[in-house]
Amino acid sequence: AESSAAMKRTASGARVGKSKRRPRGSLDIEDIITGAFELADDVSIAGLSMPVLARHLDVPVTSIYWHFRKKEQLLDAMTERAARQYQFNTPFVDGATWQDGLRNHFRKMRQVFQDNPVLCELILMRTGEIGPDATHTSVDNLETVITTMVDAGFGSDDALTVYIALSAHSRGTAMIEHLNASQRQGRGRQPTGVTAADHPLLHELEYRGHLIDDLEFEFTLDSIIKNAENLLARFVQSTTKAINLFFTQIRLGQGLPLPVEIPNETTSETFKQTDRGENLHSYDSREDMFRALDNC
Question: Rounded to whole angstroms, how far apart are CA atoms 22 and 227?
Fold first, then answer.
């Protein structure tokens, strides 16, 4: 007869064999992190706990505590992997124009967080240190973006300002979308204080379930890029005006608007001698050199 300890009944009453536990010592850190991501996909980061993870992995909870003494340490390890995955999925690829490159990059950024709610929670919604590898990849990515924009004519300060604005828009949108989705799946619609009598316009929008959509995301994305185009145009115009002013001064003054001095015969001969290593003087200190020059 089969032992009842080796069997269990399903909801339908069928008898199935009990799954075997992992052999002792077979669980490593990467297994735990992978299992934590699998579980978080179902219960979210907030619902993740060491005992629940142990049941998911079918191991004693002490096996997890052996590697991670507390949940925050596990979340830090998950954040490090999430950052690597995020950087891998969102490299900056230069487009036909700098505008296309930026649009594609930040659309992809938003999409990655939409498709991976756990990444959104770990990277955008908690504080934690990112390891050196992920940090280096992130900085390399940023350098590529700034270089592309500088090559297009931006100053590096302006290029960084535009990037930060677009990054804040894309990340902020992803966070709001994630929070809205979590509320719909959890507690449902929460009271907002909006009433039909006092706030008719907001009440209508709320009734329709107004949410951030692709059109609104693109509206702000295009607005920031349009401002960047205006910024670049002003920079180019300023440079062009400076060049035109310089040539105007040449035309009006019938020459360069600055003194042009050609070395005299003595100076030219001194340069030739030093090039040949002749008449060179050495001093024990900088002060000795300046005193000698004062006495010339």
Answer: 58
CA separation (Å) from 105 to 97, 100, 159, 195, 257?
A: 12, 8, 15, 40, 46
Tokens found for residue 181: 């989705």
Our CA dihedral for 273, 279, 282, 288, rounded to 10 degrees, sits at -110
Contact indicator for 124, 113 with CB cutoff of 8 Å? yes
Q: What is the dihedral of CA 26, 29, 30, 33, to 10 degrees?
A: 120
Q: Provide the H-helix boundaries in the chain.
A: 29-43, 50-57, 61-65, 71-89, 98-115, 117-119, 132-151, 156-185, 200-207, 214-253, 265-275, 286-294
Give the number of other CB atoms < 10 A from CB of residue 32.
23
> pTM of the predicted model, to two decimals?
0.62
Tens-place pLDDT, residues 117-145:
998 899 888 776 677 877 888 888 889 99
Long-range Cβ contacts of 87-91 (<8 Å, 24+ apart): 87/134, 87/137, 87/138, 87/141, 90/141, 91/141
Determine the pLDDT at residue 210.
Answer: 55
Q: What is the pLDDT of residue 83?
A: 86
CB atoms within 10 A of CB 169: 18
Give residue for tokens 């940090």. Answer: 135
Nearest-angstrom CA–CA distance, 12 and 226: 61
Of 2-11, 61-70, 128-137, 210-219, which has the strongest mean pLDDT? 61-70
Contacts of 61 (CB under 8 A, 6+ apart): 50, 51, 54
Helix, strand or coil for residue 131?
coil
* CA–CA gap between residue 106 and residue 147 (Å, rounded): 17
Averaged pLDDT, 161-167: 94
